């Protein structure tokens, strides 16, 4: 069982390398599970350029002031505050002071949110900063020991805890809508994910789903937070990141992940993660 300390921010801060004060960029991936990533980041100096990912991102600032532009406004996230980013929403990330900033974060696949909600609309949190007093204290426990492996039961528990926060702070208003063809859409999603290096045609999407192409395009975004094209690109980048972490040269990673060339991969990589592949790789702890 996971327990929470009275000051979760201070408790987590002790887990950052050198208390989170060593200069430079550092990214460290913890243990994850299918559809879940956990990351620790410390940034000093240059921050993340504008980017967007296709997952929910919910994290806690541990030191410094994290500032980011989101939906046309400049936001500020202080130590102990949480931030929630919706799939496919552009944002950047820079330090608000010379101290730099550090945080830990959970990336959650929207497909898991869909499963937890039973097909209900994806929650949308318009105000991305959740003050410490309004946060769910139990969430911090899932960030304290990010190297602890997640079994299937813990994967489901963590998902439900994040979904509860998303729903609680969602700005969406309940209303009636046509049900999503989730089973059919999942077949399209699986077709793409099984081999993201292959560019499938709209006719293939229609064939595997039994839906017309307009319905696929519209409902795929409603179900999974992004378009089929963007979903494929992000799965290519997942493959590229694994290759880079294993030491593959940039050009080789680009080729094996199905990009036209290294420059193409680098453009897509920076748009997704806010750093070039070279800077991202150098920052890995």
The first-to-last residue Cα distance is 28 Å
Class of the largest domain in CATH?
A: Mainly Beta
* Model regions low in confidence, pLDDT < 50 over at least 5 residues: 18-22
DSSP strand count? 10
Range of strand content: 15-25%
Q: What's the architecture of the largest domain, going by CATH?
A: Sandwich
Number of continuous helical runs: 11
CATH superfamily of the largest domain: Jelly Rolls
Mean pLDDT: 89
Region (Disordered): 1-26
Domain HTH araC/xylS-type: 186-283
Keywords: DNA-binding, Transcription, Transcription regulation
Biased composition (Basic and acidic residues): 1-17
Describe this structure in words.
This protein has 285 residues and is an alpha+beta fold. The protein folds into two domains: 8-169, Jelly Rolls (Sandwich); 180-285, Homeodomain-like (Arc Repressor Mutant, subunit A, Orthogonal Bundle), CATH 1.10.10.60. Helices cover 41% and strands 19% of the residues. The chain has eleven helices and ten strands. The strands form two sheets. A six-stranded antiparallel sheet has the order 1-2-9-4-7-10. α5 crosses α7 (213-224) and α8 (228-245) crosses α10. Mean pLDDT is 89; it is low at 18-22. It comes from Microbispora hainanensis. This is AraC family transcriptional regulator. Residues 1-26 are annotated as: Disordered.
